[in-house]
């Protein structure tokens, strides 16, 4: 079963098992994962779903789109050039990415 693991700044970890493909932001909201806001509903217009993807999963990620690139410039917590992505733009399960681990930033707004 595809999984998304969310690591909180304080050290807590939540592992979500997906019954069907889902995006990092949407799965977080459905499962009440703290620190992921998703204000724009997944339109790459708010950056409140910012996550840091763990190194071992970076090669499997889709390219960063223009809208995502723009939003990553205005994240509340500092952008990491390699690891920062928008959780609403990354789908897990069904697209070649069956598991991912992300670090949730200290701040989203
Ligand atoms: S939910 Fe708004 S940019 Fe991802």
CATH topology: Ubiquitin-like (UB roll)
- Going by CATH, the architecture would be Roll
CATH homologous superfamily name?
Beta-grasp domain
Helix content, binned percent: 10-25%
CATH class equals Alpha Beta
How many domains? The number is 1
* Overall pLDDT confidence: 97
Multimeric status of the protein? single chain
Number of helices: 2
Q: Main sheet, how many strands, which sense, barrel?
A: 5 strands, mixed
Low-pLDDT runs: none
Query: What is the tally of beta strands?
Result: 7
* Spatial strand arrangement across the major sheet: 2-1-7-4-5
Bound molecules: FE2/S2 (inorganic) cluster
Beta-strand fraction estimate: 15-25%
Shape: globular
Description:
The protein has about 110 residues and is α+β, with helices and mostly antiparallel strands. The chain has a single domain (about 5-105), classed as Beta-grasp domain (Ubiquitin-like (UB roll), Roll), CATH 3.10.20. Helix content is about 15%, strand content about 25%. The chain has two helices and seven strands, in the order βββαβαβββ. The protein has helices at about 25-30, 65-70, and strands spanning about 5, 15, 20-25, 50-55, 85, 90, 100-105. The protein has a five-stranded mixed β-sheet. A two-stranded antiparallel sheet has the order 3-6. Strand 1 (about 5) and strand 2 form a beta hairpin. The longest helix is centred in the N-terminal third of the chain and has 7 residues, at about 25-30. The mean pLDDT is about 95. FE2/S2 (inorganic) cluster binds near residues 25 and 86. It comes from Citricoccus muralis. GO terms for molecular function: 2 iron, 2 sulfur cluster binding; electron transfer activity; metal ion binding. InterPro entries: 2Fe-2S_ferredoxin-like_sf, 2Fe-2S_ferredoxin-type, Adrenodoxin-like, Adrenodoxin_Fe-S_BS, Beta-grasp_dom_sf. One of its GO terms (biological process) is P450-containing electron transport chain. Pfam families: Fer2.
């Amino acid at each position: 079963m595809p999984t998304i693991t969310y690591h909180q700044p304080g050290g807590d970890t939540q592992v979500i098992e997906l019954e069907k493909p889902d995006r990092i932001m949407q799965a977080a909201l459905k499962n009440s994962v703290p620190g992921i806001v998703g204000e724009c509903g997944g339109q790459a217009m708010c950056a409140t779903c910012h996550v840091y993807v763990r190194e071992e999963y970076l090669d499997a990620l889709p390219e960063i789109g223009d809208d995502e690139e723009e939003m990553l410039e205005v994240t509340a917590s500092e952008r990491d050039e390699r690891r920062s992505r928008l959780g609403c733009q990354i789908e897990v399960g069904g697209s070649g990415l069956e598991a991912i681990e992300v670090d949730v930033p200290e701040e989203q707004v």
